[in-house]
Automatic annotation (TrEMBL):
The keyword Nucleotidyltransferase does not apply. It comes from Bordetella trematum. This is Inositol-1-monophosphatase. Belongs to the inositol monophosphatase superfamily. CDD domains: IMPase.
C-alpha cells in the first residue's frame, strides 16, 4: 500500500546504481528459471489457490534476486510475490521472479522476471526532483527466451537491449492492437471485465491475451501493442512495466484513477491517444470505488 508519510527524506536515490542492481538481479533470477525450463516435469509445484501455482523455480529465482538486492541495497524495502514484505525506507523493491508461471509450467516460452523500485512520497530522485507521491522510478523486465531486457529509468528514458524505445503512434482505437488478461483465479470482477472485452473486440483491430502482464506492458512500451488494460493483478506484476511504459512516452494509470500508479492491479495503459480512448471505453462498465 502507499505510505502515508509526507515529510521529505533528505537523502536522494541513486537511480543509476539501482538500475544496475536490478539488471544484475534479473539475470540471476532468469538463470535459475532457464535451468529448470527443460526439466519442468521434475519441478515441485504447490497450489496457493485455484489456478494459482508456485514451483521451486519461482522460489529459487526469488531467493537469488533477494540475495542481490539485500546485499547491494539493504536500506530499501522489499515486496516480493512469494515471500511478501512491506514498503519502507526511501524506496521499495517490487519483485515478481516469474511473471507468467502458467506459461512456464506449460512450456510456453512467454514469461519474464520483473523488478521495480518504487520511490516513496517525499524522496528525492535525480538530485533535484522531490516526489509528491509514490512513484515507480526503476523498472527491469527480462524475457530470457528472447533475451530481451526492457529497462526504464524515471526522467531518463526506456530501452530494449540498450536501444531507446517509444510507444506507438496509433491515433485511433479502431486501428489499435490491444492486450489484456482474462480472469483465471479471482472471478469477482468478471462482470466488470467481460463487457470491456466485448467492447474492445468490437472497437479495436484486435485483442491479444499472452499471460504475462510485465511483458504486456513492456511490449506496449516498444510499440508492439498500442494499449493494454487488465484487472486482478498484483503490484509486483505492474510496477516495472509502469515506469518502462511511462518513460517510453506512454501512459500507465490506475483504472479507477485513485492511486498514483496501478498498485491496485487495475490498469489502463497505452500511447496517450489509445489510453484515453480505453478509459472512455471501460468507464461505463466500472463499479464505483472509494
Amino acid at each position: 500500500m502507499q505510505r502515508s508519510e509526507t515529510s521529505p527524506n533528505k537523502a536522494a536515490l541513486d537511480l543509476g546504481a539501482a538500475i544496475d542492481i536490478a539488471v544484475c538481479a534479473a539475470h540471476a533470477g532468469a538463470a535459475i528459471l532457464q535451468s529448470y525450463a527443460h526439466h519442468r516435469n521434475d519441478l515441485v509445484i504447490d497450489h496457493k489457490a485455484r489456478n494459482d501455482l508456485v514451483s521451486q523455480a519461482d522460489r529459487e529465482a526469488e531467493a537469488a534476486i533477494l540475495d542481490i538486492l539485500r546485499e547491494r541495497s539493504p536500506a530499501y524495502g522489499i515486496v516480493a510475490e512469494e515471500t511478501g514484505g512491506a514498503p519502507e525506507g526511501l524506496a521499495t523493491w517490487y519483485i515478481d521472479p516469474l511473471d507468467g508461471t502458467t506459461n512456464f509450467l506449460s512450456g510456453i516460452p512467454h514469461y519474464a522476471v520483473s523488478i521495480a523500485l518504487v520511490a516513496h512520497a517525499g524522496t528525492r530522485v535525480n538530485a533535484d526532483t522531490l516526489l509528491e507521491q509514490d512513484t515507480p522510478v526503476v523498472g527491469v523486465v527480462y524475457d530470457p527466451n528472447r533475451e530481451e531486457l526492457f529497462a526504464g529509468l524515471h526522467g531518463v528514458g526506456a530501452w530494449l537491449n540498450g536501444r531507446r524505445i517509444h510507444c506507438s503512434r496509433t491515433a485511433q482505437l479502431a486501428d489499435a492492437v490491444l492486450a489484456t488478461g482474462l480472469p483465471f483465479r479471482d472471478f469477482s470482477f468478471a462482470d466488470e471485465f467481460m463487457p470491456t472485452l466485448d467492447a474492445a473486440l468490437r472497437q479495436s483491430r484486435g485483442v491479444r491475451r499472452m499471460g504475462a502482464a510485465a511483458l504486456d506492458l513492456a511490449w506496449t512500451a516498444c510499440g508492439r501493442y498500442d494499449g493494454y488494460w487488465e484487472m486482478g493483478l498484483a503490484p509486483w506484476d505492474v510496477a516495472a512495466g509502469t515506469v518502462i511504459l511511462r518513460e517510453a512516452g506512454g501512459v500507465c494509470e490506475d483504472m479507477d484513477r485513485i492511486q498514483p500508479w496501478p498498485i491496485s492491479g487495475r490498469l489502463v495503459s497505452g500511447n496517450p491517444a489509445v489510453c484515453s480512448a480505453l478509459h472512455g471505453m471501460i468507464a461505463p462498465h466500472l463499479k464505483p470505488r472509494a
